[in-house]
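Allow me, if you will, to draw on your knowledge of protein folds for a short while. I have a record of one protein: its chain in single-letter code and its fold written as discrete structure tokens. I remain grateful for any guidance, and I place the record below:
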Amino acid sequence: MHKTTRKYFPIFVLPTLLAFLVAFLAPFVIGIYLSFCKFTTIIDAEFVGIENYTKMFKQPDFLNALGFTTAFAIVSIITVNVFAFMLAIGLTKGIKGTNIFRTTFFMPNLIGGIVLGYIWQLIINGVLMNWGATIVSNYKYGFWGLVVLMNWQMIGYMMVIYVAGIQNVSPDLIEAAEIDGATRFQILRKITIPMVMPSFTICLFLTLTNSFKLFDQNLALTAGAPGKQTQMLALDIYNTFYGRMGWEGVGQAKAVVFFLIVGVIAFIQLYATRSKEVEN
């Protein structure tokens, strides 16, 4: 680092550091403390130890939300990335109107979650009405409705990242493989996918975190119905914190556990995919 730059480095870093401390670190530390308290406001917190965590794990709604969210995340991560990668492969073949297709597929990502939820609720209910049902008649309808919504919203976004990765694959490398007699599948498996591993790392991380954090779409599409069977973790935390007097500490404990779950899974995923990048 240049001496002049080093001299003024603290001045440039200070605003960002203060913002990080005030807007993230301080609330996070306070939130952890409050998860061990019974409170209605920060100034009247009463320390109760692990009571909130005990209540949380005894609550069937939380365990159901955890299982439902995990199943939803697994299905969504696989489907979103498979379809996005297939689209990216197709849209890097020099097809006419490629830019129009890319824009069209990306546009759903720009629509807000609440709006998307209500739009897909109308669409799905319109289809299910032919069989005398609605999306909240059975939790399976809600589950697959959320999966379809997630795919429709995220595939275009992930596709753009995959397209950028595929375009960085050297054409000379592919041409050399074709001359050696490699099939399209062999080129895809041995050259394209290994070279696009950084894009896979990013897309898997984004779909993983977005799947676990899904809230707006869940609220608008099913609101957890029927009987909270389609309630995901974020919505369960919200309903606990704001919907039940005296359970604010339990809601805060759920939020801390939720953060740890997403953080640990995201870290494992990043470590695993980056290890693959190094191998390749």
